């Protein structure tokens, strides 16, 4: 018997081919996976129209996943470059790709990205509604928004970001809030503009059941977007952010009743001492749904280095229970990232995710580090380079400064502590 969604299948005790792929990649039992997918604590974004997808799971007890944002814009509308980023992201072992295109033939780009990507693909349909119809934001109709969602689902998108929690109550909180940076979510700002100009409720909140019908039809996971995420440390964990999160928790339960999978998006810019609290609040208010954090960036003053500020926040967030990290590149707040920026962002996010997996005790996470430590003890340079998260960069550093004794490096040379202590303690 075929089931409409992964969640429905799990509730009926059926292990789908996509679940088998997750089981092959993770150290989790079938019983645990079925239980957690059925309860919504694990999501497996897997649109039935994404033909060559190798499904991945996001949530409790699984490896922390990372996402790469890319896409064409009006000022940088180079489709082949962005498709190159898709391929490069896959080479660098990203777990997901989000197409955030806002200009040009967005559908052609999206379809090509889905065609070449074995990893899950996400989009933000409200961006595409602006690009597709070429209307001023207030003139976009409710049907325009939902027709765009339907098109993305039909094309094979695995998860869609929908800012359904930014309702009129949440907007009132923003107006009352002494925020420094107002609304920094692009999708949130579009909907805020639309709602204000039309004096209407958020169409995705008002017609949430219509959204659920589309997602159920194609098994699209809803990533409930944080339209009111803080864009500065000053605005973190304020009333507007929490108000939206309360609504997201309510919408999560509605989605689960329809057997539609959910991921919750989170902040944003957050001081280091508030990161753990943000994870606790989300998990509590959103009933243990997988949590997808955008960073979080832990200081506002490091443009050019925000891959580092986000890796710090991301590692702490994931160690406290976040499940999915959106990468941030050195170009954040400055320009569209290039391929080098993209690599820096991916590696930084992967470091954060792996460090968190060790802290969370994810089975097998520590084995990689133990293997590297053994190779270092043996001064096995080929093995060390093979195990490096970025072998290309590690190899380039090694080749750029060769020691006289090739068993060591030019940092310590003959004073290599590992070589000397091995001689003393092991006689070799």
Task: Please give a structural write-up.
The chain has about 425 residues and is of the alpha/beta class. It folds into 2 domains: about 5-360, Radical SAM ThiC family, central domain (TIM Barrel, Alpha-Beta Barrel); about 365-425, no CATH class. It is about 50% helix and about 10% strand. It contains 19 helices and 10 strands. The strands form 2 sheets. The protein has an 8-stranded parallel β-barrel, surrounded by 7 helices. Strand 3, helix 4 (about 80-90) and strand 4 (about 95-100) form a beta-alpha-beta unit. The longest helix has 22 residues, at about 340-360. The mean pLDDT is about 95.
Based on the model shown, name its key terms.
alpha/beta; TIM Barrel; 2 domains; 8-stranded parallel β-barrel; 19 helices; 10 strands
How far apart, in Å, are the first and last alpha carbons?
Answer: 64 Å
**Average pLDDT reading:** 96
Main sheet overview: 8 strands, parallel, barrel
In terms of DSSP E residues, the strand content is 5-15%
Are there runs of 5+ residues with pLDDT below 50, and where?
Answer: none
- What's the arrangement of strands in the largest beta sheet? 3-4-5-6-7-8-9-10
The H-and-E topology, N to C, reads as HHHEEEHEHEHHEHHHHEHEHEHEHHHHH
- CATH H-level superfamily of the largest domain: Radical SAM ThiC family, central domain
Q: How many domains?
A: 2
CATH architecture field of the largest domain = Alpha-Beta Barrel
Report the oligomer. Answer: single chain
Helix content: 40-55%
Total number of helical segments? Answer: 19
Task: State Rg.
Answer: 23 Å
**Using DSSP, what is the number of strands?**
10
Q: What is CATH's topology name of the largest domain?
A: TIM Barrel
- Which structural class is indicated by helix and strand composition? alpha/beta
C-alpha geometry:
globular
- Would you state the CATH class of the largest domain? Alpha Beta
